[in-house]
């Protein structure tokens, strides 16, 4: 989430690179399926159904279990399905980024808004001040978190409890837990451990958010991520 440059609230919104996922625009795969459907004379499919049509093709969707997490130790709490879209990553969209966010509120409030279908945005993970990690969207799927469709499709989003103007919210436990999580994600998808691939929400093209803010200690964080990787905590689950 984080603050916007003009305001402190709102969902991902449209982006310079193709618009908001939250608008559920028809994707390139859906268009292909739509063409095939039309060719066999099937009736017109509703917009949302067309958007999701290809995921119903047998053998495309990867196996899923209710409550399953991608990061060992994370607690599963499902986000509203209005705040993300079903995908089959990294087979359909390669994952090459981790994007760092700050909630601009409490952990509980972040969970609440991510469960709200009217919010239009959510991240894959939330890290609490005490280091607890909650997963709300599978890494397989595209979360509406970056305000840029291309970046959403290619990234895993991690929220952090607190406020950008209060760096004291970023506790030792939070930094360390988040670094272990990021190291694990990067190992799973062979993402380089550098600032070109681990970036803040503010660095996403077209965004109007400012998180994680000047108080986020990037030097410290990147050292912790690399240390976690070297320690072997980044071994894919």
Automatic annotation (TrEMBL):
Residues 1-23 are annotated as: Disordered. The keyword Mitochondrion does not apply. It catalyses: Hydrolyzes the link between N-acetylmuramoyl residues and L-amino acid residues in certain cell-wall glycopeptides. It comes from the Bacteria. It holds the Pfam family Amidase_2. Keywords: Cell wall biogenesis/degradation, Hydrolase. SUPFAM superfamilies: N-acetylmuramoyl-L-alanine amidase-like. The keyword Cell wall biogenesis/degradation applies. Residues 10-19 have a biased composition (Low complexity). InterPro entries: Amidase/PGRP_sf, Amidase_domain, NAMLAA_amidase_2. Its EC number is 3.5.1.28. Residues 84-213 form the N-acetylmuramoyl-L-alanine amidase domain. It is an enzyme of class 3 (hydrolase). PANTHER family: N-ACETYLMURAMOYL-L-ALANINE AMIDASE AMID. This is N-acetylmuramoyl-L-alanine amidase. It comes from Streptomyces gottesmaniae.
């Amino acid at each position: 989430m984080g603050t916007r440059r003009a305001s402190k609230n709102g969902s991902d919104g449209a982006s310079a690179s193709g618009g908001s996922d939250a608008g559920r625009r028809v994707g390139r795969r859906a268009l292909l399926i739509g063409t095939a459907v039309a060719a066999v004379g099937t009736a017109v499919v509703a917009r949302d159904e067309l958007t999701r049509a290809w995921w119903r093709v047998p053998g495309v969707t990867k196996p899923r279990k209710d409550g399953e997490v991608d990061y060992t130790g994370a607690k599963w709490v499902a986000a509203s399905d209005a705040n993300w879209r079903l995908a089959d990553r990294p087979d359909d969209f390669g994952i090459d980024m981790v994007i760092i966010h700050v909630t601009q509120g409490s952990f509980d409030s972040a969970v609440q808004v991510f469960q709200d279908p009217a919010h239009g945005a959510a991240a894959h993970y939330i890290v609490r001040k005490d280091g607890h990690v909650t997963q709300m969207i599978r890494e397989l799927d595209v979360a509406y978190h970056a305000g840029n469709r291309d970046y959403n499709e290619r990234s895993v989003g991690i929220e952090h409890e607190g406020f950008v103007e209060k760096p004291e919210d970023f506790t030792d436990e939070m930094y360390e837990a988040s670094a272990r999580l990021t190291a694990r994600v990067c190992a799973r998808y062979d993402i380089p451990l550098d600032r070109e691939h681990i970036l803040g929400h503010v660095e996403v093209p077209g965004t109007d958010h400012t998180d994680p803010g000047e108080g986020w200690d990037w030097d410290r964080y990147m050292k912790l991520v690399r240390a976690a990787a070297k320690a072997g905590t980044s071994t894919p689950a």
